[in-house]
Amino acid sequence: MMLVCAGSCCRVWRGVPRQLAHIRSASVAEPGMRRSDEEHLWEAAGYLPFSRAKIGSFFQERPVLKNPFLEDALLRGYLRRHLPQEAAFSDLCAFGERVANEVDDWGRECEVTPPRLVHFDPWGRRVDHIVTSPAWKHMKDLSAQEGLVAIGYERSFGEWSRVYQMSKLYIFSPSSGLYTCPLAMTDGAAKVIQSIGVSWPTDEAYSRLTTRQPDRFWTSGQWMTERQGGSDVGSGTETVAVPQTDGSYKLHGFKWFTSATDADMTLTLARIQDRTGATTPGSRGLSLFYAEVSRDEEGRLKGIEVQRLKDKLGTRQMPTAELLLDGLQAHRLSEEGRGVASIANMLTITRIHNSVSAAAAMRRVVQLARDYATRRSAFGKPLKDHPLHIQTLARMEVETRGAFLLVMDVCRLLGREESGMATQLDTHLLRLLTPVVKLYTGKQAVAVVSEGLESFGGQGYIEDTGLPGLLRDAQVLSIWEGTTNVLSLDVLRCVARSSGMVLHAYVTHAKSLLAGASSVSSLAPAVKAVNSALSELEDFVQVAATRAPGYLELAARDLAYSLARIYTGALLIDHACWKGASPSDTYAALRWCEHDLCPVATKQARGCYDPSTPPLDAALVYDRD
Ligand code: MFK
């Protein structure tokens, strides 16, 4: 038996009609028992809001996704400043409308209808079909129509074409059902082919990767990862390429993580076998190959077996497979032994796409959280009227703004390089900032999206709100395309290989970004913070140059973070000085610069990179008592 109300304090009982008051302590019929006349009376009078047929009258309004272009003051401000063309604005506005009203639902459908692998046809033939949802196919057509790869190659907006393309992807990404992954690799493959020279056998592929016609559009894979070689591609790649008499190769190997495996073609790495079957070990033994994914007349994949699809934490919308390459026909694109250097262009592009998706994930969760704060009330007022809640959202906003400006600046540099306008300083900056932006935004996306979920309370943890998927998908951003540590070491490598020129370019440009703020008193604390962080950075570099190589390796991650934070501070200040800037742009710059902008100097001062720390770290990690 279930009591209607046990406590005299229950509000439901106040003002109860006298003829019904005796039911106050009576019991309610259990399922299957007849309800009493009194109970029906109670229900009719509205005093049984939680009976079997009712679950209460309050339903929380859900957060609403509005046009992500119109909702993003910084994106619009940035474009007004750098790319004020009406054509770009109207296209982005229309696309934003489409994303909110149509594409976002497809993205959800991709999530709830993940790809599956069908190994055999009904008659037992091995077919290895990766079956994807209709929504995933819509994404492919949409990507072609909207020019999500093509814009970068049409270059209608000259040096700003990449900024325009990435602005579109930024709007699209959180609603794309992870279709941004195949687009990143497609863009990267087009870039590699273009840089090597568009001619047979890749001319047809290039035109298909960069077309706007859905029926011609191809996507590309990037098959780099093997069981031994995750990050360590150079020594871990086992796939061999056997030369054929017609000049092509047959590839034999096992690719352990191949993303968006329903691609039409791929770029991949393999070791060329000589006549004795021997190969050259290490990175210098790797060459770059182009292969098309095709089927024979019976529907079987030619030269490929799909071993299985991966069961992943997130990115479940997208097929990721283990592939056995069993005589896949391929064409060598690079010189022999220049595979890693040749695929580096692809890594640059995919790492920039990764950063766009990271900033976009942050922006999306902020947009939803701030909308929700107007719809949800607690403790007597809407969330937006609780200062602590708004402070939390403001901190997320500052992180998001910083990430956006850092990402767009790297896109700007890429656009300059591709349109032949890059100075030596731009080229150095692009090389240094590509790993920096990828590693920093990848990490921040997880932190901001996680905080964002919390702002929905328990609902942020509920699967069919669509919110948990944002967090799961954010987690991959710091892993694929180079983990945080691998990219931190890439920063060190590019500093060493350029004999410090990339750092010189960095400091020069960061200082020039501050120039416009010298007479803006409201920004003075921020300018001071960035200037002193730059001095600390220079001091750190001077000291580190005198130490053993292990010192810099221990400092690599903190150095990369410092580079990200200082440069982003300078970008925020620069943007706040623009004549069209808003008071919020200034406020965001001030808040950002309250961070420790140069953690590598702070930790250096505490002796964190001294030779004594690795054994202590190891003792701590393996402490068993
Ligand atoms: C939404 C976004 C979606 C993103 C799509 C993701 C889907 C795809 C998923 C994947 O495929 S994940 C697989 C990604 N794998 C990695 O990112 C591998 C991570 N490991 C590294 O990046 C290593 O640092 C690396 C494999 C590059 C190290 O290899 P090596 O052979 O030890 O490199 P080394 O000796 O430093 O450099 C060899 C050459 O490449 C040098 O050129 P040179 O011989 O001319 O001097 C380098 O300058 C060049 N190089 C290396 N890294 C470069 C680079 N050039 C430009 N940029 C770089 N980052």
From TrEMBL:
Acyl-CoA dehydrogenase 11-like C-terminal domain location: 501-622
Record InterPro entries: ACDH-11_C, Acyl-CoA_dehydrogenase-like, Acyl-CoA_Oxase/DH_mid-dom, AcylCo_DH-like_C, AcylCo_DH/oxidase_C, AcylCoA_DH/oxidase_NM_dom_sf, AidB_N
UniProt keyword annotation of Cell division present: no
Task: Describe the location of the Adaptive response protein AidB N-terminal domain by residue ranges.
Answer: 66-195
What Gene3D superfamilies does the entry give?
A: 2.40.110.20, 6.10.250.600, Butyryl-CoA Dehydrogenase, subunit A, domain 3
Q: Which Pfam family, any one of them, does this sequence belong to?
A: Acyl-CoA_dh_1
Q: Which GO terms describe its molecular function?
A: acyl-CoA dehydrogenase activity
The name this protein carries in UniProt is Acyl-CoA dehydrogenase family member 11
